[in-house]
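Lab notebook, entry 250. We have the chain sequence and a SMILES string for adenosine-5'-triphosphate, and the next step in the workflow is to get a structural model of the bound complex before anyone spends time on docking refinements. Request logged below.

Task: model protein plus adenosine-5'-triphosphate, output C-alpha cells.
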Amino acid sequence: MIEVQNIHKSFGDNHVLRGIDANFEPGKISLIIGGSGSGKSTLLKCMVGLHAPEQGKVLYNGEDFTRMDFETRIPIRKEIGMLFQNSALFDSMTVEQNIIFPLEMFSDMSRNEKIDRANYCLERVNLAGRNKLYPAELSGGMKKRVGIARAISMSPKYLFVDEPNSGLDPETAILIDELISELTDEYQCTTVVVTHDMNSVMGIGDYILFLYKGQKWWEGSNKEIAHTDVEELNNFVFASPFMKAAKERF
Ligand SMILES: Nc1ncnc2c1ncn2[C@@H]1O[C@H](COP(=O)(O)OP(=O)(O)OP(=O)(O)O)[C@@H](O)[C@H]1O
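Result returned:
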C-alpha cells in the first residue's frame, strides 16, 4: 500500500502539484490521468524519490519514504520496479544484460541464477530466446516488453509504469495492458501507471486518479468513470466522438 499525503511540488514559480492525497492498493492497477502538463509524471517521480516534494509524505506500508536518506531507502527501492516513458534501456547492453542490471545492483544471486531469472522474465513478456539482441534491433513494443522484464526482475512489490502504451499500435497497447494486469495479479504488487490511453482507463483502471490544475479533481474506478458528472473529467476522457458514443452504451 502506498499513501500519498498532501504532496506539493513546484519548479520555480510553477506550482505543479498542489496538495495531492491518494491511496494506491496492492494487487490493483491505479492509473494517474490528466491533461498534458497536469503533473502526472511529476507525481510518479515524487513517489519513487526522483523528485523531492516541498511538502507532504509518501508512505510505503506506513513508512515515510520522503523523510528517509539514501541508505534507508535502499530496502524499499529494491522492491520497486519501474518502466520509464521511453523504456530507457541501455543501448550498449544486450536484452539479457539490461534485465540482469538490477540483479547485479541489488541481489547476491550467482551468475547462473541471474541468467535463469532473465530467461524467466523474458518468457513472461513473450520474448524467450531474444537474450542476445541489442535495443536497436527491437521494435517499440518489444522495447516496452524488455523494459517490463527488467522492471519485474526483482519480483517487485511496487510497479511504476510511465506511459506504457505511447507509440504503440492499438493491438500491442492492449497486449501491454494485459501483461501489466497479469503481473499485478502474479506479484500482487501495487501498480501505478501514468497514461493517456483511454482504452487502458476503461480496461484496467481499478483506481483512477484524475489530476487537474495541480489537484486531485476526481478519483474512482473505471466502472464509475462512465457515470460521473464532473465536467472537466468528462471533457478529458470522452473528448473523442468515439468515446462519447461508447459512454452512451455504459
Ligand atoms: N525537471 C523539471 N524542471 C522544470 N519543470 C518541470 C520539470 N519536470 C516537469 N516540469 C514542469 O511540470 C509540469 C508538469 O509536468 P509533467 O511532466 O509532470 O506533466 P505530465 O502531466 O506528465 O505531462 P505529459 O502528459 O505531457 O507527459 C510542466 O509544466 C513541466 O514543464
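Notes for the group: The two ends are 30 Å apart (CA to CA). Worth checking against the assay data. Residues 11, 14, 16, 34, 36-42 surround adenosine-5'-triphosphate (CB under 6 Å).
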